[in-house]
Amino acid sequence: MAANSNPHKNTYNSTRFSGPVKSGSRWFPVPSYDRETVPGTIAATALPNTGYVICSQSAGVKQTVAEESVNNIVLPAGSMILSIQIIVTTVFDATDDKDLSIYCRPESALTWITDYVNLGAVGVYDLGNRITTSATANRWKDVSYIPDVKAGDSVDLIADSGAGGSQTGRAILTINYIPGLHLLT
Amino acid sequence: MSRSTFSGPVQVGVDDAPFSESTVAKIGPNWGFAKMAQSYPIEEQGGQITTSIIIPQKSVVTRISALVSVAWAASGTNIVNIGSAWGAYPGPDVDLTDPSEYDTDDLVKDWDLSAVGMKVAGPGDTDNLTAGDINNWMNLPREAPFADRFVIYDTIDITTGAGRAVLTVEYCQAVNLEAIA
Questions:
Q1: Nearest-CA distance from B85 to chain A in Å?
Q2: Which residues pair with B171 in a beta bridge?
Q3: Which residue among A109, B29, B115, B116 has its CA within the 20 to 30 Å range from the CA of B165?
Q4: What is the pLDDT of residue A129?
Q5: Range of the domain at B117
């Protein structure tokens, strides 16, 4: 496996949309649910019930000392990250259990998406518990909120493992997100 | 970005997928439901508060999460409940007063949001629901009125805290598991 390669392989034709895909039995022309446009009261059965389709992107990642781009995981502007999953197939063994963290780097500086996680055993890991600060939570809330991300730009992800160990760690990284939600920007 | 909206539900698959069953070759559908999500900002305040999250009836709720950016000050496990309502209200962020129009904890109960991070409802928050309420996850709503539901939240251990989070409900639209729920 090449470093941080994309394992996607089409099994049959796909249908692609440029924007978020939404679905619900009522979305237009019912009013928005706020006090400015809804005088009096309104029932749930008269309001839009559309939701966003959750999207996911996956890539293979490997233990390397230097940070490396996670090929082909690029999140659309304004996306909200719902979960990050890592399936470890070969254990990581970096010094001090600093096995893997996820960053982005729109300019020269690296910005954390997750703190380091210990991947010292084969298995499935949920990185939701690696949000340790309010600033990191806001980066999940809206990826365009990340410092140095230009308005309207997509966000490229980078994986990094700490120093030490045999550097044989291998895993599949999956990001689940809602595209274009723009909660903060 | 532009949006593509469907009345739904959105499904992906083909009608004529080949597979084998006990070595017998067969042809059949392999459709799956797209997982949907709706989000709403919640904060630490008293009362039973409406959101703008409207879940279509007969949906399967697959995940409820809170991306906590400011931790709840309330301590212990008696912090936040997630429920549903079926009345008519003037907007989101309304404090409900008529108990005949809502159930404060028919989805998540005693949810601890006292730390920053992505909190996902699970054991400890859902194994303590009132008997039968877990069926709301399988086929919302389990009780009359059988129609779309508002999602509401209830900070029941109110303090002077300034907790903030984004509540997200994930679901598969109108799967209708009535036969087994």
A1: 8
A2: B36, B61
A3: A109
A4: 85
A5: 35-172
